[in-house]
Amino acid sequence: MIILSFGIFLFFLTGTCYGNMIQCKDETGNNVDWFVMYKIPKIAESANPVIRKGVAYMFMTNNTVNDGWQLSKRDISSVDSIPGKTLESLYNDKVAEKLAWLVYNDQPPNTNSSHSKYGHAKGVIMTNENQGFWLIHSVPSFPSMPRTGTEKKKKNNTKEIIQDCENKKKNTTDDLPIGEYSYPNSGKVYGQSFLCISINSSEINFIANQLIYNQIITYKHNIPDKLKEKFTSLLNVTTRPKIKRPPYNNKGVFESTEGVKFTSFAKTDKWQKDLYDDFVAPQLQVDMLAETWLNGRGKLPSECNGTQVLNVQSIILNSANVEFKSSRDHSKWAVAMKNIKNKSWICIGDINRADTQFNRGGGTVCLNSLNLWKNYRDSVNDVESCPRKKTGFIKSIKKWFSKTIG
């Protein structure tokens, strides 16, 4: 009887720990409803050695957001970092093989290839029968490859085989160890953004459907047989299905484990518009400041017609005593320009403001939170002003004539 009782006790104990394990984590390993992170760029002139190495990060959780940005003393490449703690289950083989999860990135780890025909999207989704998390980030070649799960099947054609061989010949500093948490060297140079949301398993199929719009590249996944019927959309997204009929964009609301509402915006390559100017800002009915990658081709200027979307040009993070230009930042986030009528939105996601992104899937996830909004809004140091309106030749002559004669 004693042995039986002890066995039942262990069953409930391990079941509770097992359930609690699959959520977003803070630095102590405790469950949090959500967190945001800002990986600081590598700044050689900083007095902080962690910032100089390019592995420093700031964070806020739902429990600490009132205190603002906190500079971590930990290295983002450490297993004791916030993403290291959150992704711990992914690299525990005995745990990971029992969970449903997928890791996606248009620039997968341990390869020099990128998938420009698919979505510009990076993240992790993981769940058990009851709860899990969705981690959205901007880091190429992250996270490192888990040992368990199913790898993406490669097409057996000559062109792809040749390309794979060429990629393997290239010397890359981003080869990460398989089966353990790690952070790529390329991700240290620039700033990066993270958003993690703890979710009930009932939200998984909605999120998976959004990822279909995002046209994600899943480089490894695991869906146990006992969970396939429950998470049909999650299984479907691994096959890279396409949205064949309009609408080619989709918006929806889902909730965290504590009932906080998040709004997800997703688009396919067929939508052919700017995510922020043509979708997010009009739907949220706010002017926005967008911090996205400015170093690529086809950068869009600040948009000042209708709902405005202005490009952020520099960032200041007072808690870390750093200031940097957006050209040193690979983050993808947007914040409401003003807090009007309790619309204090902050969005973190995948897509850049560039016309080259019209041909890519991707999205963003938004939260209406005054304290979170204030911290992101205060980090905006400078923005690109509205472009001057071009006046026609006749109007220019009339304007000159009126000034000269009158």
UniProtKB/TrEMBL annotation:
Molecular function in Gene Ontology: deoxyribonuclease II activity
Superkingdom of the organism of origin: Eukaryota
Key words of the record: Hydrolase, Signal
Keyword Manganese: no
Record flagged with keyword rRNA-binding: no
Entries under InterPro entries matching the protein: DNase_II (IPR004947)
Leader sequence segment: 1-19
GO biological process, one term: apoptotic DNA fragmentation
Similarity section: Belongs to the DNase II family.
Name listed for the protein in its UniProt record: Uncharacterized protein
